[in-house]
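example protein:
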Amino acid sequence: MSTATPAETSVASWVAHAPTGPVDTRRSPHAALRTLDLAAARLRGGPLLQRQQTCLRVSLAFGAEQLEEHGNFHDLKLTAGLAQGPYKGPVYIDSDLHKWLEAVAWACADRSNADDPDVRPMLTRTIDLLAAAQAEDGYLNSHFQVKDPAGRFRDLTGAHELYCFGHLAQAVLFDDQAGLNCFTQADFVTQHATSAKTAQGGLGGFNLVREGVEVQAVQADEFVETADEQHVGGGQL
């Protein structure tokens, strides 16, 4: 059996941690094709580059305006004690902001040319707001923190808590995979998951039903990221 040289070990370690896109097959024993690192390919022209530039230069800022207009930012500010007035959104309002945050994270990691706007301030400002809104026990969901504190983790099939959490966790994973490390000061995923496990003596045995789709996707991504088998088979908490 051959052993790797220190140089080969160093290269393998770099490859294992180099930023990638949303799919990373580099450690899979089954994949026939291996993921390139994030900087290995760039769009240089054509309709896909045009759409990418529209996203960077128009869509992300417009998305932030819409989130402001429809109360997504307001409700998190209300949760953090940074705003006053009524709570504006439906039970799933946080999820739209988290989905937008995923897109911002990828945009930060993949600016095709120097003329692209730097959207990282959008990302860091939103992370700061989420950190300010997060409860002391790690829980983060503006609806249940402001409107229905007694309802936390009582309706896993219809209250969108796990749905919202899943999209936030995806944004955190994307930030990590892209090598941005903007979430390092705010441990949303571990702390929120801990609050879930301690709620009502734990959530063991609850089938995640339709809300479990997002959580299962996160668990699959986390398994790819860490090779930790505890993230496999995530139809249960």
Notes: The chain has nine helices and no strands. The two ends are 41 Å apart (CA to CA). Residues 47-231 form one domain.
